[in-house]
Fold this protein.
Amino acid sequence: MSAAVKSYAAVDLGASSGRVMVGRVGPDSLELTEVHRFPNRPVRVPEGLRWDVLGLYAGVLDGLEAAGAVDSVGIDSWAVDYGLLDADGALLGNPVHYRDSRTEGVAEKVWATVPAEELYAATGLQHAPFNTLYQLAAARGSAQLDRAERLLLIPDLLTYWLTGEQGTELTNASTTQLIDPRTRDWAHGVARRLDIDLGLFAPLRHPGDPAGVLRPEVLEETGLAGPVPVTAVGSHDTASAVAAVPAGGERFAYICTGTWSLAGLELDAPVLTEESRAANFTNELGLDGTVRYLRNIMGLWLLQECVRAWGEPDLGALLLQAAKVPALRSVVDAGDAAFLAPGRMPERIAEACRDSGQPVPATPAEITRCILDSLALAHRRAVEDAQRLAGHAVDVVHVVGGGTRNALLCQLTADACGLPVVSGPTEAAALGNVLVQARAHGLVGDLAGMRRLLTRTQLLTRYEPRGGTQRWQAAQARLARY
């Protein structure tokens, strides 16, 4: 292998599993290998639902040992959740899971001080009950928050344990509802009005900034020879995934699929209108001054929960059966917060269809088809709404992430949107993570150059829309009546 090729470890943590991938990058090559995968199992304790962050950290260390010699390490994960540290830098309890019930009803209390319209105009963030802002409001007066001297978002917490250095990476910070997307700095006015101490947060870092080097104890445990730098990447996994969308030009929409579907556009400036707020679009920050203008959709969580309830049947066989079920027989609102909590998902989907006067799906294949049709319909609505609200037309939809493995969902999305869908890469978050590290070390060029390298080196599949979009319009109108 050429001396110009370098190796980068991408720690990519999802809601159900974590993995360490090694990316080998050269001027015209990009190869990604998974070296370690480990479960991410939340734990329900008497005080609520918590992340097993120590188990995740152990998985990271095992992964770095399996990775062997690398030129840098970068970490990305899901957003909004955090750990609290005391004055000695010790963790104060396990981080709370965003699906924990503690934020129920909290948003309304926050809006009594800062109305929802003003909050959106200042931060551009869609309403989600688990945003960090609401988590902090829910934690007010708790012993842990009262003792805390530092708050670190999950990737920053793991980076701190690896390096001993503290920072707050910007793309993930933008999901807290405490960042002004116009200035790309803290929303000081919002924090002041809600009595949130921004001094809890470590200084902001940007993707590509140095984040320290592995501590001697980490080197000893992993068997790596130092120094090994850690590089800040787009530490919100969606920021890394969007960086790895293999698009040419600006006329594209993206859908990052996995447990969630994040569907939207890459823009140069936020859209902070009241119409945008009412449509529940968010303005999160991306690489190189970009804005990820998107809507959160419940995503394949719906199917994952059903598969779990059915005893983990063979997914490939289930999708083949679902493809034979008549299209658009029943649909649900895939963005409805009613589907956020775990448990009884098949029954809840059936109940939603019954309550809206539609045929009730009964078999696993029928429920699966209902889910996939509903997700494609939600993708259509998001892509249409984003173009209208941002005044930004698109010619193609890029689907990246785990959902690229689901060919039926990709084809249905093309059909629903009436646009070609380019599917891939599957490991977009890890690839974006690797490429930001490689760029920080001078190995690849700008964002457009990163995307050209992806287009040349990654497996992509194109789906052309079939038939007209009239039946999707009819399904959308049917759903809107309820």
In short: The mean pLDDT is 96.
